[in-house]
Each structure stands twice: as C-alpha cells, then as structure tokens.
Amino acid sequence: MASVRFASLQVPHRSQLFINNEWRDAEGGRTFAVINPATEEEIFHCARASKADVDAAVRNARECFHGPNWGKQSSGRARGDILRKIAAALTEQKEDFSILETLDNGKPIAESRGDMDACISTFEFYAGVADKFDEEKVKHVQTDEDFDVREVQEAAGVVGMVTPWNYPLMQAVAKVAPAIAAGCSMVLKPSSMCSATCLRLGDLALSAGMPPGALNIIAGSGSECGAALLDHPMTDRLSFTGSSGVGHTVLHAAANRLVPSCVELGGKGAIVVFDDADVNSTVDWIMVGIFLNAGQCCSATSRLLVQSGIAPKILERLTSKARSLRIGDTLAEDTQLGPLTSKEQLDTVIGFIQRAVKDGAEIVCGGKAVPFNGKGFHHEATVIRASIESEVWNEEIFGPVLVMKEFDTEEEAVQLANASEYGLGNAVITADAERCERVAQQLHAGIVWKNCSNAIPTGASFGGFKKSGFGKEYGRLGMHEYLQTKVVVGVPAAYSWDWYPDK
Description:
Elements: E1 2-6, E2 9-13, E3 17-19, E4 22-24, E5 31-36, E6 41-47, H1 51-65, H2 76-92, H3 94-105, H4 109-131, H5 133-136, E7 138-140, E8 148-155, E9 158-162, H6 168-182, E10 185-189, H7 196-208, E11 215-217, H8 222-231, E12 237-241, H9 244-257, E13 261-264, E14 270-273, H10 279-291, E15 303-307, H11 311-324, H12 343-358, E16 362-365, E17 382-385, H13 391-394, E18 401-407, H14 410-418, E19 422-423, E20 425-429, H15 433-442, E21 447-450, E22 465-466, E23 469-470, H16 475-480, E24 483-490
C-alpha cells in the first residue's frame, strides 16, 4: 500500500485493481492521474482497467457466486459478521479514509468524516438485516388447501455496479453493503474522477474475510471500463448512480441483455417554505439542501419556493449566511464550502450562470468562481431569481446554485414544486402540522422531507420518480434490488389430480 503525501500528511491509498482478493496492475500497466480539486495538484496515479480486466473481474465474481462459500451456499449470519467486521475496520481507519476522500473529491474534511460515519452505519444496518435473512427469506402463501406455496428470496447473482464522484464511498457502500447482505458477488466500478476510497474497500473486504471474487473493484474510464461492465454477458444485475444522460446508456445495455437494473439519477428538488416557518432553522435547512457538498448532490433541493409574506426575511438571512460561508483549505476544520470536483464541473456551473444572466435572471448573491490562493475549482454560494421557464430553474446544475421564486397559495406552491421532469426529493417547511402533512402527501418525489431537507437517516430507503430513475437504495428496500423471488409449489407425495384416469 502506497501513501499520498500532502504537506506533512502520509495517507495510505491503493492504486491497483482489486480482483479475486488480489491487488494487480491494469493490463499493459495503464494508469490515469488523480487530481486534488482544491489545489489542482496530481496526487498519484491509478490503474486504468481495460476490457480484459473487466472480464477477469466478472468471471471471478461469477465463480465465487456459484462456489461453496458464497451466494446461496453462505448463511445470512455469516454475511452479517463480515459486514460488522467491515464496519469495525472502517471505524478504526475513519480518519485516513476521510482525508483520502477530501484529497480526491475536494469536500471539506468535516463533510468527509460525516460521510464515513454514514458508511459505517450502513454496513452495521445491513449486518442486522443479513442476520435475519435466513429466517425471513421464505414466505408461505396459502392459495389452495391442496397446495403448499412458498415465496423464496435468494441472491440475484453477479452485480455490475457503477458509482459517481460526488459521494464516492457513500454511493459505493449503498450498493456493496446490501449486495453482501443478500449474498451477491459484485464488480464495483467507481468514477475515474474519485476512485481512491472505493479501491481501499478492498482492504476492508480482505480484513473481514470475504471470499475471493465476492467483491472486485476496478477503476477506469466510463467509455471503456464502464461500458465493458454494462455489456458483459455474465452479470445478472446492473446498479447505476449518476446523471440521467448516462442512465439512458445503462438502461439500453440492460434492455439489450434483458437484465434488471436499478438507476438512481438526477434531481431538481424543490423546498417549499410557508409564511409561518421559523426563519433561522428554515434558512439552515435551505443551505443544507443546496450548499452541502458544494451542491453536487442529486437530492439537492435546488429550487426555493418561498411564500411572499416571509420572502424578504428569508432572503435577507439566506444571502447573509451564504456570503459568510468559509472557502479555504479543505483539510481545515472551519472550511464550510469545498471546490467543485473537477474543472469540467466548475465550467458547467459557470456556463449555467452566464446563460441565466444573459436570459434576464438576477444574481442575488454569489455568481463567481473564487480560487483559493489562486488554485482550485471553488465557486461562491449563489442565489438566483429566475423565471420558471428558464434553464436554471428546470435543469440540474450540480453546483452551489439555488434558484428562487415566490408564491402566494398552497395550491400554487404544490403545482410549481411538481412541475419538473425530476422527482427525487422535495421538502416542505411550515409550523402548521396539518398543512405540512397535506403538502407532503401531494409532493411527487421518491423522498419527501417535512421541516428538513436532504436528510437520509440510516434505515430510510432512497430513490426517485420520473426522470430521477427507479429502484431503491438504503433501508430494507435497498436489499430487494439484489434479490430474486422463486415460487415453490408442492403437494404431498403420491397426490394426484387424477386428470387422466385409466379407462
């Protein structure tokens, strides 16, 4: 294991592929550079998997699944023990993982630590689910007194997983943990922009005693490595988190091979604020909903709908707080807003804002790139007033950009919130409990927050409606994506309908 040198820090990392419980170079020794988005420095090189490397990973996963130590042959309790060991190992190495995530992704260290806590909780949650798997996997269904009918849940097989760069380890763990609980084997392909912490999952798997081939981790480009995984004939499931555009590619690959898929895609969530809301707590939730992770969050509530009576107070407090967010050294404890994860993403955000201004939008605060010490892909926290027909109101920006509009009536607010191609997460904030519940019931999204935003507690399932995809991650529903149901129908020995009696 090598170490990343950052100032006086030595942070362990892995730069090879993890296949069949072995660390190996990519075919031909190919690599790609890993860049720290806060400083634009190259921190190390990572193995770049080829189609042949993908094939090796999938074949080993398949051999493992059909072998004697995994899949249908392993017990749920044994898999639960592995998940607990992974959680314990990650707890011990939390600071190393947090620093590595910050160096690779750019999020402030406090956010990376919070992400690691969420990963630990997810592994622990699915350990408990796995413990009960064997006793809960069979359900008796009585349809006829002559027949014994059972529904049997079993592992789906080999899963190809493709994860994004915005929450590198968290998004991987959301797939890996329930797949282990179910008994699947898997090939994980993280984003080439942020592979570091995902690769180090291999060390956790080794320390926990996972059998060879159960978890394989390959890094590389989406066009080569990712495409080879999606198209591989030996995967039984596909699980993807990322943009809606790439989601179409995943679904085409799944359709071509007739394999089930789970796709968690983009979002353009709305947060609806009524006149009776508490200003201070509301502004805090508004900011959590859009400025956490520099706005690079599919579940961001990036559209603010605020009732006219409270709008001036909300806007005054919001702009003041947004302007005060500290941009700085991502390893400093007091840094609040990190950089965008790549130069390409920064350019995307800048492009959205420039086009919005050209189309007549008003920049209330922010609106500019702000390099720290002359380096990095940092951007100010930004609030924009724009029309509901504008690009910035309707399209996912994936940056620290909040677009706002005032409303007068509850009916208008619900209509505006639901008038989106996306349906991942929406929020409502009001002191009126009945109205809060009423509006929540009407908001059309896979997850709805009442008097909060962008919070996904351990055990809560997550997934979208409409253009935001389908399937669930996290919670008990998250494991269902890695299971298939077999129906077993039986009668007593020597029983017959006597349909064809002797003549």
